[in-house]
C-alpha cells in the first residue's frame, strides 16, 4: 500500500512537471512572437501593438487552461492505481528520477514536487532510518570502520554498481568495513547538500551500533565537492563526526570546475547577445543550481549568494584547502593512452579536466596541493569508467589499507 502511494505521488509529480513545462514553453513562444512582431531596434506601429495584444489573450488562455487541466489530472492520478511499474523497472525509474533531479532538482524542491529526491543514507536502494535498531537491522554484521559512498551529478547510489562491480561493496568485503551509500538531489547547490550531509553524518555516527573506529569517504565527480563542503561546514560548526574521518578518495572530482558547464555559460551569453535568439536563452537557464556550481567548483553559500549564476563572470569561489588532519587522495581519468603530449590536460576524462581533478589551479594560491603519492592518473578511462576499472579499484584499495 505504501509503495502504491509512493508511485502515485511520483505520477502526480510528473503531471505537475508537464504542466509547468507547457506553461514555460508558452512563455517562450510568446516571447519569440514579440521579437518577430516587434523587430529589435525599430519602432512599433499601432497595428503591431494590436497584434501583440490579441495574441497575448490567446497565450493567457493557454496558461489558464493548462493549469486547470493539470490540476484535474493531478487529482485523477491520485485516485487511480499506478501503472508506471509496467513501463519501467524500479531501477530504470530511479535512474530517470536522478537525472531529472540533476537537471532541475532545485526547481523540483522549490515547487515541492514529489519527484524531488530527499537526502538519505541507503542500502540496496532502501533508506536506512538513523537509529541503532534500524542500522543493526540493515547491517546484521556491523563494523566500526565505515566507508561512505557519495555519487555524482545526475546519478544515484545504486549506480555505483557498474558492469557487475561496486567499489564500495568490494572494499567493504576485503577490508572488513561497513559500506553505506548516500542518495541526494544533485540539482541543489553543492553547499546546500554539503550542509545536509554534515547533519546526517553527525546523526549517523551518534547512532552507530558499535564504537566508530574510522570513517572513509569515496566520492565520484560532484560527490567530491559535496563531501568537501560537508567537511568545511562540519568544522565550522564543530561537529563530532569529523574526528572519525581518516581518508577521502576523490574520483574525477571537478575541484576547480568542469569545462562542459563553462561552455554552457558561454552559450547563455551568446544567446542573450543575439536579439532574435534571446528568448531561447531561457532554455539554457533551466539547468539546476547544482550544475552551475560545477562551473568553478563552488563549495560554499557565499560562492553563489547575491549573484546571477547565469552571468558571465570569473571564478569568485572562496578557496577551501583540503582538511589538515585527513588523508586525501585523487584519481583523474584521461581518455587517451599515456603520452608526453599536454593535450590530455585539456581533455581529461571527457567531463573533467585532469588539472581540475588533481586540484591544480592557474592561480597557485588556489592549488589544493595533494601529495604527489596521493594522486594517480587513470589512462584510457572515461568519467564513468572510474567506477569499475580494475586498475582504479586496485589503486583505491592500496590507499585504504
Describe this structure in words.
The protein is α/β, with parallel strands linked by helices and 401 residues long. Helices cover 45% and strands 12% of the residues. It contains 13 helices and 10 strands. The strands form 2 sheets. The protein has an 8-stranded mixed beta sheet, sandwiched between helices. Helix 1 packs antiparallel against helix 2. The chain is globular. About 12% of the residues have low confidence.
Structure summary, number of beta strands: 10
Shape: globular
Main sheet summary: 8 strands, mixed
Radius of gyration: 24 Å
At the fourth level of CATH, the homologous superfamily of the largest domain is Alpha/Beta hydrolase fold, catalytic domain
Write the layout of secondary structure elements.
Layout: H1 2-37, H2 46-77, H3 90-110, E1 120-123, E2 126-127, H4 132-138, E3 145-150, E4 161-162, E5 165-166, H5 167-175, E6 178-183, H6 190-206, E7 214-220, H7 222-236, E8 245-251, H8 259-273, H9 281-284, H10 289-293, E9 327-334, H11 344-347, H12 354-357, E10 375-379, H13 390-400
Parallel strand pairs: 3-6, 3-7, 7-8, 8-9, 9-10
Antiparallel strand pairs: 1-2, 1-6, 4-5
Helix pairs in contact: 1-2, 6-7
Keywords summarizing the entry:
eight-stranded mixed beta sheet; alpha/beta; two-stranded antiparallel ribbon; 13 helices; Rossmann fold
Quick structural overview:
The chain has helices at 2-37, 46-77, 90-110, 132-138, 167-175, 190-206, 222-236, 259-273, 281-284, 289-293, 344-347, 354-357, 390-400, and strands at residues 120-123, 126-127, 145-150, 161-162, 165-166, 178-183, 214-220, 245-251, 327-334, 375-379. The chain is of the alpha/beta class. It has two domains: 2-79; 120-257 and 318-400, 3-Layer(aba) Sandwich (Rossmann fold).
Amino acid at each position: 500500500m505504501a509503495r502504491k502511494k509512493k508511485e502515485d505521488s511520483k505520477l502526480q509529480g510528473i503531471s505537475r512537471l508537464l504542466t509547468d513545462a507547457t506553461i514555460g514553453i508558452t512563455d517562450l513562444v510568446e516571447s519569440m512572437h514579440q521579437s518577430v512582431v516587434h523587430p529589435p531596434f525599430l519602432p512599433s506601429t499601432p497595428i503591431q501593438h494590436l497584434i501583440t495584444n490579441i495574441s497575448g489573450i490567446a497565450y493567457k488562455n493557454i496558461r489558464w487552461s493548462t493549469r486547470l487541466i493539470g490540476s484535474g489530472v493531478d487529482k485523477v492520478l491520485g485516485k487511480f492505481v499506478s501503472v508506471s511499474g509496467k513501463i519501467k523497472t524500479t531501477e530504470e525509474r530511479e535512474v530517470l528520477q536522478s537525472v531529472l533531479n540533476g537537471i532541475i532538482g532545485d526547481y523540483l524542491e522549490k515547487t515541492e514536487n514529489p519527484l524531488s529526491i530527499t537526502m538519505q543514507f541507503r542500502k540496496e536502494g532502501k533508506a536506512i532510518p538513523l537509529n541503532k535498531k534500524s542500522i543493526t537491522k540493515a547491517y546484521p554484521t556491523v563494523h566500526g570502520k565505515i566507508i561512505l559512498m557519495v555519487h555524482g551529478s545526475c546519478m544515484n547510489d545504486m549506480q555505483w554498481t557498474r558492469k557487475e562491480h561496486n567499489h564500495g561493496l568490494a572494499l567493504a568485503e576485503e577490508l572488513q568495513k561497513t559500506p553505506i551509500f548516500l542518495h541526494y538531489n544533485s540539482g541543489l547547490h553543492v553547499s546546500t547538500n554539503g550542509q545536509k550531509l554534515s547533519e546526517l553524518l553527525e546523526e549517523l555516527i551518534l547512532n552507530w551500533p558499535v564504537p566508530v573506529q574510522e570513517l572513509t569517504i569515496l566520492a565520484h565527480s560532484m560527490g567530491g565537492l559535496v563531501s568537501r563542503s560537508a567537511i568545511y561546514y562540519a568544522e565550522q560548526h564543530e561537529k563530532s563526526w569529523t574526528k572519525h574521518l581518516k581518508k577521502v578518495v576523490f574520483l574525477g572530482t571537478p575541484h576547480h570546475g568542469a569545462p562542459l558547464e563553462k561552455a554552457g555559460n558561454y552559450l547563455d551569453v551568446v544567446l542573450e547577445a543575439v536579439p532574435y535568439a534571446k528568448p531561447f536563452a531561457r532554455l539554457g537557464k533551466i539547468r539546476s543550481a547544482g550544475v552551475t556550481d560545477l562551473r568553478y567548483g563552488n563549495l560554499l553559500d557565499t560562492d553563489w549568494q547575491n549573484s546571477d549564476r547565469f552571468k558571465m563572470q570569473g571564478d569568485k569561489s572562496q578557496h577551501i584547502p583540503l582538511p589538515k588532519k585527513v588523508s586525501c587522495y585523487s584519481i583523474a581519468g584521461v581518455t587517451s593512452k599515456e603520452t608526453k603530449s599536454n593535450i590530455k590536460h585539456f581533455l581529461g576524462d571527457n567531463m573533467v579536466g585532469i588539472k581540475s581533478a588533481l586540484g591544480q589551479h592557474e592561480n597557485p594560491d588556489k592549488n589544493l596541493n595533494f601529495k604527489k603519492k596521493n594522486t594517480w592518473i587513470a589512462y584510457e578511462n572515461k568519467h564513468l569508467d572510474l567506477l569499475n576499472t580494475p586498475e582504479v579499484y586496485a589503486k583505491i584499495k592500496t590507499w585504504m589499507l
